[in-house]
Amino acid sequence: MSPSQLSGRACLILLCSLISVGRVQATDNWNVDGEHGELHVEGELQEAACRVEMDSAFQQVDLGVISTDDLRQPGARSTPVPFHIYLRDCLRTRSAVRNVNTGNLSWSANQPVVSVAFMATADADEPTLVHPDSMTLSGVGLRLLSDSQETLTLGRRGRPKFLDPGQNTLTFYVVPERTLSPLAPGDFRATVSFSLDYE
Fold first, then answer.
1. Is 139 left (phi over 0), alpha (psi -120 to 50) or beta?
2. How far apart are CA 96 and CA 107, in angstroms?
3. Cβ contact 173:148 at 8 Å
4. Counts of helices then strands in the chain (DSSP H, E)
5. Exposed, middle or buried: residue 130 (CB in 10 Å: 0-12, 13-18, 19+)?
């Protein structure tokens, strides 16, 4: 919105007050020092099918203590740990999202459709795994899975999901997995960001 459009809207809002004052007093005090001012208002209106609950936007997933015995061979996995993204205030809306893996189009005339992409540093040996940050840990990556246990490719949107108007819960899993690097125990952390795509 240009400044001229903003001023026009501000004057329109203030016009009622100026007219009512004008009826009582005919004197124009606009140029009198200390009798006027300006209000500049800015903002942005965005359309989104749902709202991510703050508990989902910033959360911690505790994998607990993992035994090296569970990860003796490359490709071996520990127990998957679920995490959830809670969506609120989902609108009844027309939507369409294309599955980037199959090319199929998911669409609905009155139901929102969402796909989720996860971004993180990929493991050097296995790019589908998240590389954890650690001074001592080696030979372990983190695999992200959908609610149907499908591997989620980092940086790519997953399978589109239909949402119900109102509240929805998206469930995913993170599972430690042995990589080709030598196995060495240690504490680790990983930061994974995600984005929701409604088309």
1. left
2. 4
3. no
4. 2, 10
5. buried
Mean pLDDT computed over every residue of the chain: 80
Instruction: Tell me the backbone φ, ψ of residue 114, rounded to 5 degrees.
Output: -130, 150
Distance CA 194, CA 115 (A): 10
* DSSP designation for 70: G
CB atoms within 10 A of CB 35: 9
pLDDT of residue 35: 66
Give the N- to C-terminal CA distance of the chain in Å, as an integer: 24
Residues 6 or more apart in contact with residue 104 via CB below 8 angstroms: 98
Residue 97: partners with Cβ closer than 8 Å, 6 or more residues away = 105, 106, 107, 113, 114, 115, 157, 160, 197, 198, 199
CA 183 from centre of chain: 33
pLDDT band at 47 (very low <50, low <70, confident <90, very high): low
Which residues are bridge partners to 162 per DSSP? Answer: 113
Give CA–CA dist 188/131, Å, rounded.
10
Q: Answer yes or no: is pLDDT of 139 > 90.
A: yes
Encoded tokens for 91: 């609108």
Q: What CA–CA distance (Å, rounded) separates 152 from 155?
A: 9
CA distances from 196 to 41, 85, 89 (A): 29, 10, 15
Q: pTM, whole model, 2 decimals?
A: 0.71
Higher pLDDT, 58 or 144: 144
